[in-house]
């Protein structure tokens, strides 16, 4: 890798975390009204998240679909305006930045998307895709300089030069994702938020992309926030893993700690649900099957949000008091969990019980609004 | 749902208001006024000036508009300059004819368009498909006067199956109840009147239906093709259901959704398409009346009718939207 | 005689003016009564086409199907459409990948279940409704009576897949084909669904053909596993053999390219290079050659035969040595 | 040769087999064009249009008679007022028209103006409609609260136009501008403005939530730039398809306007729609006077429609793989 | 389509049960002839009402109507109308001098909206004013008083002598209505405001006159007016039982309706269709051409400098091949117009200057006038046919071609007949040449010539005081024969001055089915259905 792209590759990561998130909230208003819209409620997609991502490290975020991972990722980049809380990026509180300043800041924080095809403009060729960001930030004095930079980036992500004149639809899934990564990299960012970077990819290709992300991090001292619903992927790639449930973190620990000693009942269930390609493991493992589905974030359960599905739920506390992330005795001090009964579950004092599945109304997916059909011949030649 | 309807209706108000202002200014800016139309070749400049003055047409436009709005808001749409009858009376008298015509045309368009569109989709690429495309195009590209002429020549003059003009045989002394002749005949049990009125509708409705028929056919075809690819049709097949159930419950019910919106849209265009059809068939409806009103610069009629047209158009689309929520349970109106 | 005996099945998509695509190319496998068989491979390898060919659900035009698919001695591929309609849903049922798009959005769940009962079990009215409710109950949908009246979009993803399963098992079919039934679902829900399928198979003796790209899913479920690549079976084995002593480099790739939850962190993944695009047409050799780490000259030229060693068979001229597998 | 070396060599060869990368990439449009070229319907459509354009371009130089000279009346052969309009003959292949002019020459020369009116009217409608729809769509998608309001306002205005009977719309536009060829084009174009506007807006809104727009925002690209270089280009496909289809109807609408006296003032200049309208009183005497131009219009419309439909299919994202 | 024919066949042999459906191009506006001025209303009211004097059947000459005799005194101001005896209104009221005077007083004493030119147009144009004028634009009324002398003598006094009186009394607007009905149905209560005029019930639903047919119903929803035989009619009773006027505005639609036997006749036959209809066996009834088409030359338009030169106007006249136009675009029996009034109407002058077709002469005259590069703004109406102008566009195209041959550039302006065209050529000056014409209202040349030329108008754009004075003199001449002589002079004078080019007199036609007889075409469109028979 060339110097122009790498930053600080020799320096040790400094102490202060690159990203600090404090009590971040993203609430989407639900509106209704006859003439003027009134807000009648909120989808609390992210509801009070604290986390920090150290420089040069990878923070992994897992959770079920709809728990607010993507929203959190976008809010950290301020692509979705936050309702409350702060995000500090390298000492700058970006939640209170004006649009112009924020735009400048974007050079240093980039994003990789889940679906490589839909995140690439089908009418732009790769060169144009890569140059767009450079142009927006006035990087590179002239065409040649930009080309050089683009070419270097292509090398870095392992794409051939001829790719430049090609269009996204001409590439395979893995290559497309490489284009997406190149687009993020070309600006030379410090932070990359990768929202499900591999889940849309073929099994065989996932490994290529994961390896690439790891290699790039090593070379460029990048900081990652990797979002995935696949615990195995997150555990593989991340230094620190945060488990999210209904808009909030329920557990946060280093990758190994989490695997060895999951403390939150949800983490345990999640872990036991991940299939392992090994008949012996599969035959022996004990499963914690969760009942029902993720409740709607528009109407989250009171108290502990997980209590409706928790096999260890207790009649007290769980129902009316929302647990906060805390360190419990006997574990590492980077291991935090939001459960009232974590100690008792850990020690085996509490045993799981059956849970009746509750009816969950899914968030609006599948709903559509009235389509607009316009037909050329819907007007008449009156004659 | 109720809120939705109220909201949509309230939204219509500014639209209608804007429309009325626009129309008013627009119409009054057109060269020539009702005075010329009233007097015809016999107009002298003096007479014209007198009529203009008497009618207040020489006042500033906003004063005229103010008067107009005042009257409209008090529930009076004014009197037709040319027929000297209240616009509302004219409307009530002529609209039923247009509605009958439009409804029958829609029935033709839907009744023929959907099966043909389905067939074309099912036999995509076959001669049936090509024929439907051709017929649709023919319907779209042939001017109304020509199509009407040919229908009349073939089905009336040559074959003698249908009458060519009017809404009802002049010698039938039918009782008028609602103004919908077919309905009136049924209500009063004057069956011959009802049947005769229907026979009078066939040719104009066929003519008027030519464009919607083509549109419905095409949309149905496209939509059926799309639905046939859907996973749930495969699921239905995998359940071993009979063809009939798959066609009706799974394919058509879904394929009808875009067709439904189109129909709403088409109703608007049918209303304006009725204009020429009514003239060609000497069919007494609002369409032909509007044409005359344009010629005569009959401002009250034009204002009133077009506003009512627009309102009807909006209402129909509202109805389509509301009915959408019944056809498609996924639709959430907001 | 196995319940389902697929032999030399081939499917060619040949549209006018386009190059013919051979999606399935001489696939053979069998499913015994009550057995759970897996069909594994990455996207585009022909899994779905295979299952659709067996069900006769491929479009009637532009498709050439060859070989045999004998169900209970009848060759499904030659059955008249009407007979096939009788078999579908009654003797052989199917579950699809995306539960939302696989359900008719404008028809209540209840009717979609009841229509199967009406068609194949001649049930009507209240009886059919009650049976439908009990079916929903059986697949673990809470408050089934209310759910009958609801539409697919009102159910969560997991519930939708359960409803689909309810429809599939409504007539206690002898064979259930599940085409990636959990791919669109979250892991926790996937676990629920897999558990449900296991239970159903166990309780009713239905045979299950499980199609997936996730070797993890088949590891705990299937007795026999077929690995498909570019339309051909490249390896077949009972599951312990397959996971323990697989010989085909592609199977190695599938296993090693995915992070395992239990593998130590930071262990480097071994990706399969290239993508499904880099496929050699089978007649010119092993289709996997362009992506294979274990290529020899013999890979190109002659297509490799399926080599049988007992229940284990693989299609490779240069298989991975058993010890090599262990080392990897 | 080492195993690795051999492998490399083989893979290179296999790469050739699997289709080596060509020199230049194909954009979606090129890709679509390729698909269009393969569709027989499109070929027929394109063939028809080519013929049509050819006739329009060079036909006027080869016609046997002046299309505006009332030769038949001067020679006394034609007396349309007395029901005498001679039909096809050796000298006049399609006979005379009601003004004693050579119908064949009029058909050939008429192609040009017919095409011209249709094209200009459609372009006008498309341009204005796209402008309104584009502004509305972009402000809704990217403009925040005020953007939504602007969009709402523009769409209300468009609604008004959509609710107006289009005849009235065209007539009033034409009456205000006064009769001229340009007026016809503008009036006909105006009818399709609301349709294009809604189409583009709808298409843009559909794009607005796509990831690549978000990606551009994340890159720090300015909103105007996103609108013009991403939202617009990606939303235009259906608008263009619509355009080809509108062309067909535009020709007919134009004829209708001429019929109402709002058309080309030089009424003797041949144009198919006008010819069709002029034939109306003579349907009994010589129906050919209506049939020839009607046939011309329908075949042309067929050409545009076939091509448009083929384009629509070619650009359909669902078929893009 | 067969419904009607069945019915017609079913009817018994007695012709008195027959129905005739006659297709007309437009709806009547109202059925009180005093309040209307349009031909379609008149067509209906002519069957219901009668006037004191009337045109002879099939002609324009004035003959007795409800008055057996009408004579002026020596001053020419006082007219005695001797009324027919034994006439009854359709409501049973007696027709007498009091009724006549009631009608005249009703018109004369109009107030309010009744004085609106839109309402009592003909009274206003013929009589000039009312008892109490409410507008300063109105003048003194020609009508002074009406006195009943006994039952059968009505004495009408006028304020001056004019060519219009009494021939204009033949206009349907001067129809005598039943006073009782007028009162009963509030005939004078025209309400609303000038821009919102509402007619009283009398005018819409209760017309009562003395004519051979009485009103039954006006079905606006089906666009028909139904009349029935008046069995108390004083003269020969109508042969038809029922007479229905059905509005069919589209020309082809009327034709097809006739072919389909939905109607048994219609008016405004397109000249082009005449031959075809005849060959199909229909009876085409051609009216004498009581009209003129002219191409007006405006002397205050854009090209006024050139056009005020009479040589240029002559050049234009020579440039146009009127023969070819008449042959190609007009029906059989049409003639080229040499002056602005039809032949056969007293005052016609065979000796006017004629301008034969000669492009060379035209060019020479233009050169003589020193005019080169003459560009003329030519207005023509679209989407209309008039009895005197069967195909305006076609005629325009021929004229244009002719003018171009003479080296004149033509700049065309098409416009919709109403109101754009009429407004453009009659109220504005932005036109050089245009096509227009006239169908006579009643049988006096003044109705043609005077209408065009007795004062300055924007249509012609010239001021010729001598000519205007000559008209005033002719109008005042009480002696008809003397007046006719003056008209002859006027025609000559006009054609020398050449304010425009008269083009054609085209006989309009109506058509009836083979089995219909007894209708006599009238130059004034005063066809009477009283003798009409369906066999
Ligand atoms: N713009 C929005 N307006 C309203 N609700 C939203 C919006 N975006 C997301 N949501 C809701 O917020 C919740 C969290 O969404 P988010 O996309 O962050 O979940 P996720 O964890 O990324 O899920 P997935 O794994 O499916 O991507 C969901 O219920 C979603 O419906
Ligand atoms: N209708 C079709 N027409 C042409 N080719 C098709 C058609 N359906 C499938 N194919 C091709 O057949 C091959 C196998 O497709 P198939 O759907 O069976 O893959 P799969 O293994 O099920 O993949 P996935 O995991 O993505 O579902 C693919 O290359 C595909 O492009
Ligand atoms: Mg997400
Ligand atoms: Mg598949």
TrEMBL record, chain A:
<dbReference type="Pfam" id="PF08352">
    <property type="entry name" value="oligo_HPY"/>
</dbReference>
<feature type="domain" description="ABC transporter">
    <location>
        <begin position="19"/>
        <end position="271"/>
    </location>
</feature>
<dbReference type="GO" id="GO:0015833">
    <property type="term" value="P:peptide transport"/>
</dbReference>
<dbReference type="GO" id="GO:0016887">
    <property type="term" value="F:ATP hydrolysis activity"/>
</dbReference>
<keyword id="KW-0067">ATP-binding</keyword>
<dbReference type="InterPro" id="IPR013563">
    <property type="entry name" value="Oligopep_ABC_C"/>
</dbReference>
<dbReference type="InterPro" id="IPR003439">
    <property type="entry name" value="ABC_transporter-like_ATP-bd"/>
</dbReference>
<protein>
    <submittedName>
        <fullName>Dipeptide/oligopeptide/nickel ABC transporter ATP-binding protein</fullName>
    </submittedName>
</protein>
<dbReference type="GO" id="GO:0055085">
    <property type="term" value="P:transmembrane transport"/>
</dbReference>
<keyword id="KW-0547">Nucleotide-binding</keyword>
<dbReference type="GO" id="GO:0005524">
    <property type="term" value="F:ATP binding"/>
</dbReference>
<dbReference type="Pfam" id="PF00005">
    <property type="entry name" value="ABC_tran"/>
</dbReference>
Automatic annotation (TrEMBL), chain B:
<feature type="transmembrane region" description="Helical">
    <location>
        <begin position="9"/>
        <end position="27"/>
    </location>
</feature>
<feature type="transmembrane region" description="Helical">
    <location>
        <begin position="257"/>
        <end position="281"/>
    </location>
</feature>
<dbReference type="Pfam" id="PF19300">
    <property type="entry name" value="BPD_transp_1_N"/>
</dbReference>
<feature type="transmembrane region" description="Helical">
    <location>
        <begin position="197"/>
        <end position="219"/>
    </location>
</feature>
<keyword id="KW-0472">Membrane</keyword>
<keyword id="KW-0813">Transport</keyword>
<feature type="domain" description="ABC transmembrane type-1">
    <location>
        <begin position="95"/>
        <end position="324"/>
    </location>
</feature>
<feature type="transmembrane region" description="Helical">
    <location>
        <begin position="133"/>
        <end position="151"/>
    </location>
</feature>
<keyword id="KW-1003">Cell membrane</keyword>
<dbReference type="Pfam" id="PF00528">
    <property type="entry name" value="BPD_transp_1"/>
</dbReference>
<dbReference type="InterPro" id="IPR000515">
    <property type="entry name" value="MetI-like"/>
</dbReference>
<feature type="transmembrane region" description="Helical">
    <location>
        <begin position="101"/>
        <end position="121"/>
    </location>
</feature>
UniProtKB/TrEMBL annotation, chain C:
<keyword id="KW-0472">Membrane</keyword>
<dbReference type="GO" id="GO:0015833">
    <property type="term" value="P:peptide transport"/>
</dbReference>
<dbReference type="InterPro" id="IPR017871">
    <property type="entry name" value="ABC_transporter-like_CS"/>
</dbReference>
<dbReference type="InterPro" id="IPR050388">
    <property type="entry name" value="ABC_Ni/Peptide_Import"/>
</dbReference>
<feature type="domain" description="ABC transporter">
    <location>
        <begin position="4"/>
        <end position="255"/>
    </location>
</feature>
<dbReference type="GO" id="GO:0005886">
    <property type="term" value="C:plasma membrane"/>
</dbReference>
<dbReference type="InterPro" id="IPR003593">
    <property type="entry name" value="AAA+_ATPase"/>
</dbReference>
<dbReference type="GO" id="GO:0016887">
    <property type="term" value="F:ATP hydrolysis activity"/>
</dbReference>
<dbReference type="InterPro" id="IPR003439">
    <property type="entry name" value="ABC_transporter-like_ATP-bd"/>
</dbReference>
<dbReference type="Pfam" id="PF00005">
    <property type="entry name" value="ABC_tran"/>
</dbReference>
<comment type="similarity">
    <text>Belongs to the ABC transporter superfamily.</text>
</comment>
<keyword id="KW-0547">Nucleotide-binding</keyword>
TrEMBL record, chain D:
<dbReference type="InterPro" id="IPR000515">
    <property type="entry name" value="MetI-like"/>
</dbReference>
<dbReference type="GO" id="GO:0005886">
    <property type="term" value="C:plasma membrane"/>
</dbReference>
<dbReference type="Pfam" id="PF12911">
    <property type="entry name" value="OppC_N"/>
</dbReference>
<dbReference type="InterPro" id="IPR050366">
    <property type="entry name" value="BP-dependent_transpt_permease"/>
</dbReference>
<feature type="domain" description="ABC transmembrane type-1">
    <location>
        <begin position="111"/>
        <end position="308"/>
    </location>
</feature>
<feature type="transmembrane region" description="Helical">
    <location>
        <begin position="41"/>
        <end position="63"/>
    </location>
</feature>
<dbReference type="GO" id="GO:0055085">
    <property type="term" value="P:transmembrane transport"/>
</dbReference>
<feature type="transmembrane region" description="Helical">
    <location>
        <begin position="153"/>
        <end position="176"/>
    </location>
</feature>
<protein>
    <submittedName>
        <fullName>ABC transporter permease</fullName>
    </submittedName>
</protein>
<feature type="transmembrane region" description="Helical">
    <location>
        <begin position="239"/>
        <end position="262"/>
    </location>
</feature>
<dbReference type="InterPro" id="IPR035906">
    <property type="entry name" value="MetI-like_sf"/>
</dbReference>
<feature type="transmembrane region" description="Helical">
    <location>
        <begin position="290"/>
        <end position="311"/>
    </location>
</feature>
